[in-house]
Amino acid sequence: MKIRIFGNSLRIRVSKSDLKTFEQEGKLTAVTEFVTHSLHYSLEKKEGIEQLEADFANNCITMSVPTAEANNWIKTETVGLSARREMPDGTSFKLLLEKDFKCIDNTGGEDQSDNFENPNHVC
Fold it and tell me: Rounded to an integer, what distance in angstroms lies between the CA atom of residue 63 and that of residue 65?
């Protein structure tokens, strides 16, 4: 699972094995260790919500997905889910959950063997 934060946006990308774990357990968790603290982030299925939600508490970022929407996303070719949440100050917070595709140019030296095939890849 990868996380990207930019301004008021949060994006999580999941690999094939991440998606399988998420389907079976209803939750994914990861951690980034810093010298003095750890940043935890998780993805979870949640009943009683209508769209993606996110929260930050106790050094943990949690993105919640409505259970029915998560189950549909897992079983279909749908690439991603998104939502825009209005903030109390009038700004908005964008949430995006995506299946992680292999890069076409294969740069960066990252192992992409567990990523989804890129639909834009032309052989």
Answer: 7
